């Protein structure tokens, strides 16, 4: 009889093996499905980037381009609108258009995404459609959108009506699309953080029949079976469940991908085709996960192969070597070494993830030693029957005792890492603006500014708004050896637009920081080719007036004619309901220039933080569920492994509730200690990963204690399965064993 036939025969007659096989297959299915989902995320972002390369091209050219291009972001009701302005520089028929764009809009026409067209039809023209400055001429196809709900429009121009920031492209979708770096990093971390608990769940499921299988194999070994035959039997028995689980995991992966399309990222959800993986990747994952499971099962046969008599009769474990304690410091050192490499090169991302996986695995080496030490402490200090039973178990078989806590420890590690990263990343949020929070503004050049101001004021009056636009210029100033920022704006406009406190003079004046004692201010009259101010400075010739401001404010009438400004902004104050109309006036008058506001600046940051919170919650819930399931299965398996011992104790009169209390202590005590260590380790890793994206000091929140408390609670709840398992042992005759 070959090993596979033997495995099938055992599976048919042994109910406990059937349960173990089903749970192992489900664990492998979960691991396979999660890995396929997380592996597909970089491909999904790559698909997005390829579809929207026309919105954010990278292949600029100084001359000889085929199309003039400009893009800007807009906002309405908290939703981002992407605007692309184009003007063909050659015959439009010679242009290669990206998928989803059937034709280039003529000057004065635009193509809209379906969602934008619907939104524009439901809102007043002064709040949205007027700002486009073009008439609808069709819709963009799905192949041109980042996500189904994207608000985007393509506006046609002639070359002379393009925005001031336009540049040339060799084609509309020029450049190379790149996947989302942040989501790629998170996907890699997720593979490590979720694959390890999944494999722990598989290991816990396989332990349900570990003792019985070990005795069976030891008997076969003593009867003359060779090590190769015993190994083949285990490989066949485990491989059967692993292969079934891998097939099931591949089968359910489309369902997981379908669910993932509803999880927003980068402002919207996903198209179903985004998550299609290349078949070689699917085959690789479907083969690799079962190989890992079978390899782990075969690696655990050392005692059966080498000392079958001890495996059949039982043997007290030898004390664990204290050298295990060096594994964690070594893993931390390796992690930070690869982390420093990743800061210098993105090619070091794979070694970083490998070191993170090694770091997550290291507690499984140190945990049994800590468990053994904890058991010794309790056998010496406590004298209650349940405490003595639990302490003896922790002391005699610390590896098996720690196994119930392994999944929970990994979940606590992931939670502490996430709760270190999130507050630190949130502390980075914020923005700086030279204007008040209520001000909307755009940048242009000095030639276009007067016409834009007149057009904006005309539209504001047409919309019934009292606010008016103002021109704010910037000039490079110098006092002695110190350079200062100067704004060319009247005092009345400065009070409304800038965060300054002024007592305006009746005559035009220069306002300088209080106590600056500026007797002479010089201004730049021209700029160098690289945009920096030259040393050709001329005296302003006006004594400044002290004011509560950090910048120098200059009345426009005081600058000599022909003074060159380094930048010109058009600003409009607007609050409440008037903001959308004021934004429309600015956009319509400028022909699609980038309008800047506080909500635009903070909106992108808030969206990224919301994405991070969302995937963090999903990941932590998944890790916690996997950890709790592995703890429950490991506890049940522990009872099954010791049916003889528990049956004898109950036959001798030991109450079931005493044994249940001992089992709960076995699960809770190692978990309580191990989760504290895992929480500290996760915090260290979180600090390291935060240093990968920022040089700021990390922020530590009191919520860091939450994973530790919840981890211990999950371990205790999972250990509650011991009572039903003990009742089952009491109901079955010992002769069945």
Automatic annotation (TrEMBL):
The ABC3 transporter permease C-terminal domain sits at 191-308, 620-733
InterPro entries from the xrefs?
Answer: ABC3_permease_C (IPR003838)
Q: Name one Pfam family in it.
A: FtsX
Predominant location: membrane
**Source taxon at top rank:** Bacteria
Localization, per the record, is: Cell membrane
Q: Carries keyword Nucleotide-binding?
A: no
Q: Which UniProt keywords apply?
A: Cell membrane, Membrane, Transmembrane, Transmembrane helix
Q: How does it sit in the membrane?
A: Multi-pass membrane protein
Protein name per UniProt? MFS family permease
